[in-house]
Each structure stands twice: as structure tokens, then as C-alpha cells.
Amino acid sequence: MIKSVEPIKSSVPLTVTSPKQLWIDQWSRQLYVKVISGTATGWGEVLATAGNDPSAYYEMIRTVTPLIIGQDESEPREIWDLIQKYIFSGGYGVTTASLSGIDIAIWDLLSRERKQPMYKLLGGEQHSIRRYASLSRYRKSDVVEAVRNLLDAGYKMIKIHQSPSESLESIESIRKELGYDFELMADLNCGFGLEAAKDFAQKVSKLEMKWIEEPIWPPDDYDSLKVVNKIVPVAAGENFFSLNEFRRVLSMHAITYYQPDITKSGGITGGTDIVKMIREAGEIISFHCRPHNGWVGIAATAHLASAISTDALLETPPNCIPEENFKNTNMCTNDFVKPAGEGHGIVPIEPLPELKSGGLLRFHD
Question: Are the C-beta atoms of 173 and 146 separated by less than 8 Å?
Fold first, then answer.
């Protein structure tokens, strides 16, 4: 029986690279969910992207906590349905992301009670999940050096997050200076309208990108995504919050790489349904995870991938799990994350670094 649910704001710092990133504070904010029964503790994570501020999610979790106390953790789908029906207001966003963190924590709790890894509880086996290094934003003059240093460290797949106005020049410089012997992706953070996105796609198509990510604003303009995807492979999905949104995109063949984020789109329960549907459609899955040092969501995603989608890619920060912040049993190399241990294999070390700064943070172009 679930005895307590606690949302915890934290600031596990982003690992500073050389050269230093620009988005340090923005990507050093986490919201964890700690769920306790009589015999075990489970941890979940919420990706709080609304204003990059966890406050609304924190209050939503506190609002639904009385609904969860006393529930049987051995029935996570029933709890998921209960919360979903209680908070559904015609939309998703904050509500679904809050549900996601709770759900991940309940699955972790149940796995630990049964002394099993989460992938086994989900009916799967242990597999190594290929990871790629996802960079924060850099000064335009620093991005080539940042990518070079990762290549020297042994990473083989790298994604950049330069501003839309700088992305083409940055990609051209990376290819000119560092060549084509590695896979390169670019997240455009919904930076273009359709015509500008088409122009960008035409210009970047000769640079052998694995994908361009979220080129269109707003992110649910599926028709425009489909147009750009005919020019260059498009990845999207971190801003699709439901099974039905993914179903619609699948029916349209609007993108090439599908990027569910289980810390936003329904946790393990919702994510399982989404991933199974994408796999049945024969499409490619590349899990989205914010590449910060939260790692609970990344570890849970690796367990889900190991159980259901072993050939998927996994987004990670350009480092492994910081030992000063987590007790971890998962295996991590530059090439893969291999889930191991009870639950999702990772426990934050308390007390967690406190999130002291508040208010909205803007991601400037």
C-alpha cells in the first residue's frame, strides 16, 4: 500500500564541458517524485518544461497525492487510469508530465518490492541500449571544439542545440572541420515556420544529417512536419503527450524518428502503450530525454527500451551518471546504457542539491 508521495525540487548540476555550455542553470533543474510503501521506496522524474519551472508540476502532484495514498502499488495501470481521469481537462502538458513522474516512481517501487529490475517486471530481458551525446547550447565560436572533444572522448553520435539562426552555419563548420565519420543531429527547438524550415532543410540536406529535430513551430503542426520530412529526416515527439497524438502522426507518416519522452507523456504505463504502437507500425524510436544530470528518467527509459524496443536510441548528456549524486547499478559507457539492478537501478542520494532559484527561465535564440 502506498503510504506517501513527495515531489522534490532539485538542482543536480549540469556537468560542465570544455568549452563551457551556455544553458547551465536551465539544465540544472529537476523535479523528482518519491513514493514510499511499507517496504520500499520508488523514484520518478518529471520533465518540467512549462517555463522551465517545476512549480506548476510540483503543485499538481501535491493536488493528486490524497488520491494515491492507500492505493495498491501492484496495480500501476489502475492508479494511472485513476489519476488520468481525475486530472484530465481536455489537454495534457503539466498534468500528463506530473502523472509521468508518479507512474515511474510506482513502477520503480513495485520492482524493488519484488527485487527485480524494471525491464524484467515489464516482461523483457537485459539489453544494451545505444546512447547518443546531446549537447547543451554553446557560443557559435565554441560548438566545433565541443563536438571535437566529444569525438576525441569516443562518442560516435552527437546532437547539437544551437539557435535556429546559427544552426546551419554551425553544422557546416562541424562538417568542414571534423568530417563525416560520425552521426550528427541538430535540435532546432521548434524554431521555424514552414517556409523557413523548408529552406533550412534544403540547405542542410547535403550535410548528411541523421535528422533535424522539431524544426516547426508549433510542434503539433503535423502537416508541416510531413512536408519537411520529405526533404530531410525529421525527428519529433517530445511534445506529443498522448497515445492519440502519436497515432495521428503515425497515420500521416509525418516524421522519420519518433521521440517519446516518458517523463512527459505518461511514464512507464503510458510510454509502454506508445512504444508498442510505434514498433507495431515498423517505425524508428529514439527516446527523448532532457540531457541533464537528472538520470532517473533516463534510467527508467533504458529499462523500458530493454523490455520493449531494444534497437531504440537513447538521448543522454555527454557524461555518465555522477557518483556524487546517485547510487547506481546501471552500466554506462560512451556507446550504451545497460540497465541493471532492482527497479530502474538508480537512487538519488539525499539530501538532494536544493533548487534555490525560482521563476521562469527563457531559452534565448
Answer: no
SS3 for 332?
Answer: strand
Q: Enumerate residue ranges in the chain where pLDDT < 50.
A: 360-361, 363-365
Of 334, 347, 275, 270, the closest CA to residue 305 belongs to 275
For residues 297 and 294, give the distance between their C-alpha atoms in angstroms, rounded to a whole number.
7
Cα–Cα distance for residue pair 254/249, rounded to 1 Å: 6
Do 282 and 313 belong to one domain? Answer: yes
Residue 110, C-beta contacts closer than 8 angstroms, at least 6 positions apart = 42, 73, 74, 76, 121
Say what the pTM is. 0.97
Phi-psi region of 253 (alpha: psi -120 to 50; beta: other; left: phi over 0): left
Q: What pLDDT is recorded for position 130?
A: 98
Q: Residue 148: its pLDDT value, please?
A: 98
d(CA 158, CA 132): 6
Amino acid sitting at position 211: W
138 & 249 share domain: yes
Altogether, the residues listed in the chain come to a count of 365
How much is the pLDDT for 363?
45
Domain count, the chain: 2
CA angle 202, 229, 160 (to 5 degrees): 70
Helix/strand/coil (H/E/C) assignment for every residue in 146-180: HHHHHHHHCCCEEEECCCHHHHHHHHHHHHHHHCC
What is the model's pLDDT at position 365? 44
pLDDT at residue number 360: 46
Q: 47 lies in which domain range?
A: 4-116
C-alpha cell read off for 186: 541538430
Distance from the Cα of residue 43 to its chain's centroid: 16
